[in-house]
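A reminder from the course coordinator: this example appears on the midterm review sheet, so study it carefully.

Given structure:
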């Protein structure tokens, strides 16, 4: 149980939550304002969009301890057309944002809490060794090498032609389409899943430098790569579908196992009628790199956007369609199901009916997000189409009862405004906070175990801490200097 900040919330016992469904309740809604991040990047991308544009934060969301979260944009702004030969992708440098999420009491309000999100830091992702970039030849653009590259710092970017020879498992390809992020238990590194490879990579949380790329099952990779995703899919008989690779990533609370889920069925699974709605789950033992493969059958949604751990063998899976704000339509399906891998069948060698029939059983939905938000008075056209980020946060107290929190984020495709029926709608980086109790999980046979992430000082603090330890006799000065410069 996370208990920090509970004392400040004990006075909220008279506050009631807007009903979602069963005992799950909507506690707060917040946005992250602003149009620029803290990367310090200058200049424009190939499409004319500033290189430091702030957006797309809900592709992935990770809890980092206390009231700190990491928000992950995907491959960058490509929702507006500028060059179809590149799928409108640019040399947007891959990054994650460190965000403080403050929940404060809202007595008498429509929701029991106010949520204030503050951007604290932008971390760019790079490799200490050389990466493969596109030349731009024949594509109407210049080289894909970021001008910010330097010795020992080669930046990943979203440009679709940033690859070299070989299959899509080449760890030296510079193209990255981040979709999910998790923080290691020691707080010092992050794990990020990607759609291009697909990849699961580990980065230093402080510097953004690549630590490791995990090897995934060979049946996930495509042999023929191309700047246009549709060409890739049409040119391959095995591997992930374009732009629908490793969409979700969970980390078990013990910090030992990564659990990734592919957004849509693989090319070879779509080709067989029986398995055309079956997606793959891959578990990775972090220490050994050993993988296992499981199956998940889609029901209401057209794909999966995220997976988050309830404990070391049970997970919430975010199944959704593409309807809602940003799509110019009314939201229909955004549902969270409970799955259990404890006795699941390993499916690496299975296909077709055998694959479908071996899929992990599911329960739920545990939470119907569309129903919850409509019940709170939000019109269906204002519910984001891309509900993609899930993370558990700190416990809070509502009506004298401790509740766990689930943070849900949207990917706004870097578009601050969108259209619906001729009207203009704001399309912010938005966060929804739901509360639930252990009793809400009892019908699903789940015992919730929260990940415990160690507190890690921000990079600017390290030098001060070191000097305090050496020169001024250690505990008090280390703490005071760190606080002065945090």
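Designed residues:
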């Amino acid at each position: 149980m996370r208990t920090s900040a509970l004392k400040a919330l004990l006075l909220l016992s008279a506050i009631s939550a807007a009903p979602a469904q069963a005992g799950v309740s909507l506690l707060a809604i917040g946005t992250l304002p602003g149009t620029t991040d803290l990367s310090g990047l200058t200049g424009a991308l190939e499409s004319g969009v500033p290189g430091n544009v702030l957006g797309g934060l809900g592709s992935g969301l990770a809890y980092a301890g206390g009231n700190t979260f990491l928000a992950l944009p995907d491959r960058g702004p490509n929702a507006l057309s500028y060059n179809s030969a590149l799928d409108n992708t640019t040399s947007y440098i891959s990054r994650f944002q460190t965000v403080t999420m403050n929940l404060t009491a809202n007595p008498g309000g429509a929701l029991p809490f106010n949520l204030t999100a503050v951007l604290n830091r932008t971390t760019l992702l790079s490799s200490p060794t050389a990466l493969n970039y596109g030349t731009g030849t024949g594509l109407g653009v210049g080289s894909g090498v970021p001008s910010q590259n330097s010795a020992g710092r080669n930046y990943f970017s979203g440009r679709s032609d940033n690859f070299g020879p070989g299959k899509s498992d080449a760890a030296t390809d510079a193209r990255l389409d981040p979709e999910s992020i998790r923080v290691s238990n020691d707080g010092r590194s992050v794990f990020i899943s990607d759609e291009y490879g697909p990849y699961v990579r580990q980065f230093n949380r402080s510097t953004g430098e690549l630590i490791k790329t995990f090897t995934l099952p060979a049946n996930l990779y495509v042999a023929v790569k191309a700047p246009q995703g549709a060409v890739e899919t049409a040119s391959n008989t095995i591997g992930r579908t374009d732009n629908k690779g490793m969409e979700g990533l969970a980390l078990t609370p013990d910090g030992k196992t990564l659990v990734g889920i592919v957004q849509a069925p693989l090319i070879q699974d779509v080709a067989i009628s029986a398995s055309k709605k079956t997606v793959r789950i891959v578990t990775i033992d972090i220490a050994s790199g050993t993988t296992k493969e499981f199956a998940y059958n889609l029901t209401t949604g057209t794909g999966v956007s995220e997976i988050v751990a309830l404990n070391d063998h049970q997970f919430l899976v975010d199944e959704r369609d593409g309807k809602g704000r940003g799509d110019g339509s009314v939201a229909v399906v955004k549902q969270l199901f409970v799955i259990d891998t404890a006795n699941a069948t390993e499916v690496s060698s299975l296909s077709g009916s055998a694959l479908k029939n071996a899929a992990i059983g599911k329960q739920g939905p545990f939470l119907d997000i569309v129903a919850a938000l409509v019940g709170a008075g939000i019109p269906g056209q204002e519910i984001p189409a891309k509900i993609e980020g899930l993370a558990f946060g700190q416990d809070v107290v509502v009506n004298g009862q401790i509740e766990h929190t689930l943070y849900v984020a949207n990917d706004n495709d870097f578009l601050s405004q969108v259209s619906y029926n001729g009207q203009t709608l704001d399309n912010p980086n938005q966060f929804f906070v739901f509360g639930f109790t252990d009793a809400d999980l009892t019908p699903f046979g789940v015992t919730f175990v929260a990940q415990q992430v160690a507190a890690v000082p921000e990079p600017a603090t390290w030098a001060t801490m070191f000097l305090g330890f050496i020169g001024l006799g250690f505990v008090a000065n280390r703490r005071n200097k760190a606080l002065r410069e945090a």
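Residues 7-455 form one domain. The mean pLDDT is 90.
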